[in-house]
UniProtKB/TrEMBL annotation:
<feature type="region of interest" description="Disordered">
    <location>
        <begin position="1"/>
        <end position="28"/>
    </location>
</feature>
<feature type="coiled-coil region">
    <location>
        <begin position="165"/>
        <end position="192"/>
    </location>
</feature>
<keyword id="KW-0812">Transmembrane</keyword>
<comment type="similarity">
    <text>Belongs to the transglycosylase MltG family.</text>
</comment>
<feature type="site" description="Important for catalytic activity">
    <location>
        <position position="257"/>
    </location>
</feature>
<keyword id="KW-0961">Cell wall biogenesis/degradation</keyword>
<dbReference type="GO" id="GO:0009252">
    <property type="term" value="P:peptidoglycan biosynthetic process"/>
</dbReference>
<keyword id="KW-0175">Coiled coil</keyword>
<feature type="transmembrane region" description="Helical">
    <location>
        <begin position="37"/>
        <end position="58"/>
    </location>
</feature>
<feature type="compositionally biased region" description="Polar residues">
    <location>
        <begin position="1"/>
        <end position="10"/>
    </location>
</feature>
<keyword id="KW-0472">Membrane</keyword>
<keyword id="KW-1003">Cell membrane</keyword>
<dbReference type="InterPro" id="IPR003770">
    <property type="entry name" value="MLTG-like"/>
</dbReference>
<dbReference type="GO" id="GO:0071555">
    <property type="term" value="P:cell wall organization"/>
</dbReference>
<dbReference type="GO" id="GO:0008932">
    <property type="term" value="F:lytic endotransglycosylase activity"/>
</dbReference>
<keyword id="KW-0456">Lyase</keyword>
<dbReference type="Pfam" id="PF02618">
    <property type="entry name" value="YceG"/>
</dbReference>
Length: 381
């Protein structure tokens, strides 16, 4: 009984071990199959990523515009369409770049700045309104802006010494309107925009300079920009607000009387000394103010009758300064008023042929200088 039991037990153990071994073998096969499947899947995914990544890299080379994720630093040009871009007075290359990027003329500020710096003529780009294509290459944009034909806005240049009436005519011409419309606009601007010290008179406050006229600008806009320019200039020279009208009056006389720039400070000295009474009557005695009061140019003959005309601008008969400026003075004349020469000069006479002025401290010296000028003129005849 014992031997049979043991034999059966051994057989049972062997059977269990075989079954266990079989299960383990099958489990290993299943595990191997799973590993094979996972490896295959990983290989397929890796191959897909490789192919996809390669296409991402190659596609922009075949068609750069097809991938929106690629940063465009400069357009290839030549561009298309049309857009107006305003370049303000005093704009740097960087300021221009900003305006052009906002209008989509160039792709990036960097592209334009590089093209601007690479072109030795770029500093010659003028302020104004430009008609340009969109999506131009930066190099083409610089070249186009150097061409005066691309400027669509009008420009007004006010020379030193021009009177308000001349400036009104120039504005009317540029805006293609009647002078009467500019005069009406001037009345409104004088009432609402001029500093109180000007007394409502535009004369002298329309700064001599060059201005950009944009297509939408009105006469009021242009006049205000001229007044603003005067204010900015006086601010930069630190002229007190209460002194500005007198400074402009004196500077306008210097502008009208002086031909040579190096004589401005001496004429400014004569004005100060005459106002202080060096001539004994406190009168300036300036022909330029007499002519202004008569509405004639200084070049017209001042007969004795005209010299004695009773106008508020006749500084031969009225002491002190005239009631207002007689033209638009330039900055050099204003600077001369603020920093006149030193000395006792009280008179001067100008040679209209040579532009030279002869200065004197006394009336006798002045009369001698006048004789010299007359002799020169008679000799030329």
């Amino acid at each position: 009984m014992t031997d049979l039991f043991n034999q059966d037990s051994v057989s049972a153990v062997d059977a269990r071990e075989r079954r266990t071994a079989e299960r383990r073998r099958r489990a290993r096969k299943r595990a191997q199959r799973r590993r094979n499947i996972i490896s295959f899947i990983v290989m397929i995914v890796a191959l897909g990523l490789l192919v996809g990544g390669g296409w991402v890299l190659v596609r922009p080379l075949l068609n750069p515009d097809s991938d929106p994720t690629v940063e465009v630093t400069d357009y290839p040009g030549p561009g298309s369409g049309e857009v107006e871009v305003v370049i303000e007075e005093g704009s740097s290359g960087s300021d221009m770049a900003t305006a052009l990027v906002e209008a989509d003329v160039v792709a990036t500020r960097t592209a334009f700045i590089n093209a601007y710096n690479a072109n030795p003529d770029a500093a010659g780009i003028q302020p104004g309104t430009y008609t340009l294509m969109q999506q131009m290459s930066a190099e083409d944009a610089v070249a186009t802006m150097l061409d005066p034909a691309s400027l669509t806005g009008n420009r007004i240049t006010v020379p030193e010494g021009w009177r308000a009436s001349q400036i009104y005519e120039r504005i009317a011409q540029r805006l293609e309107i009647e002078v009467s419309e500019v005069e009406a606009a001037a009345d409104e601007v004088a009432a609402d925009y001029l500093p109180d010290v000007a007394g409502g008179d535009m004369e002298g406050w329309l700064a001599a300079s060059t201005y950009n006229i944009h297509p939408e600008d009105t006469a009021e806009d242009v006049l205000q920009s001229m007044i603003d320019r005067t204010g900015e200039m006086l601010d930069s020279l630190e002229v007190p607000a209460d002194d500005r009208q007198d400074v402009l009056i004196k500077a306008s006389i210097i502008e009208a009387e002086v031909i040579r720039e190096d004589e401005r400070a001496r004429v400014a000295l004569v004005i100060e000394n005459r106002l202080d009474g060096c001539s004994g009557d406190g009168r300036l005695g300036m022909d330029s103010t007499v002519a202004y009061g008569l509405g004639i140019t200084l070049g017209e003959a001042l007969t004795q009758e005209r010299l004695e005309a009773d106008t508020s601008y006749n500084t031969r008969i009225n002491p002190g300064l005239p009631p207002g400026p007689i033209d638009s003075p330039g900055q050099l004349s204003i600077e001369a008023v603020l920093d006149p020469a030193e000395g006792q000069l009280c008179y001067f006479v100008s040679d209209l042929e040579t532009g030279e002025s002869l200065f004197a401290e006394t009336l006798d010296e002045h009369n001698d200088n006048r004789a010299i000028i007359n002799e020169r003129s008679n000799g030329d005849d």
